[in-house]
């Protein structure tokens, strides 16, 4: 590999203009997942970050957070907890609503998904406005979990979600940052890095 792992992942993400509506550029992670090398590099980036941390569970946000979260949980020898869209879980649940551009949505978890005091990593594929990530974090906290960090592959800084998450005091780690109108993403530098 001629470049650092994060830059390699950023370059593998496909930008699809005008989808799902005109003026929106969709950041598609499926090329990263389809290629065994880039998928391994992506998972390894997260494994190397979290391998030495004291964690009990990985919580993944519906649906692409399930892909990342379950593989990461396996690699770290941790349990996995799904944070689902409302109405998808069969047992007793607790829900957290959040605001969308034109309405509300909700995520939910089983009431026994976490135990008080468990240390949880929350992961999704992308952070845009931050609504889903913040709702999932609140849900975990309501059940007594200690959300250690939120993580995502992609950050869309113009939509303010990363700032909203950080404003709550929850640390956030992302691999790539995409600015609207730019076809390729840039590596997100570690805090304190030059």
From TrEMBL:
Matches recorded under NCBIfam families: apt (TIGR01090), PRK02304.1-3 (NF002634), PRK02304.1-5 (NF002636)
Superkingdom, taxonomy of origin: Bacteria
An annotated GO BP: purine ribonucleoside salvage
Known role: Catalyzes a salvage reaction resulting in the formation of AMP, that is energically less costly than de novo synthesis.
Catalytic class of the enzyme: transferase
Annotated organism of origin: Candidimonas nitroreducens
Binding partners and assembly: Homodimer.
This protein's name: Adenine phosphoribosyltransferase
Pfam families in the cross-refs: Pribosyltran (PF00156)
UniProt subcellular location: Cytoplasm
Any one annotated GO CC term: cytoplasm
Catalysed reactions, as listed in the record: AMP + diphosphate = 5-phospho-alpha-D-ribose 1-diphosphate + adenine
Gene3D superfamilies according to UniProt: 3.40.50.2020
UniProt family annotation: Belongs to the purine/pyrimidine phosphoribosyltransferase family.
E.C. number(s) listed in UniProt: 2.4.2.7
Pathway linked to the protein: Purine metabolism; AMP biosynthesis via salvage pathway; AMP from adenine: step 1/1
Keyword Nucleotide-binding: no
Keywords: Cytoplasm, Glycosyltransferase, Purine salvage, Transferase
GO MF term (any one): AMP binding
Residues annotated as domain Phosphoribosyltransferase: 36-157
PANTHER family xref list: ADENINE PHOSPHORIBOSYLTRANSFERASE (PTHR32315:SF3)
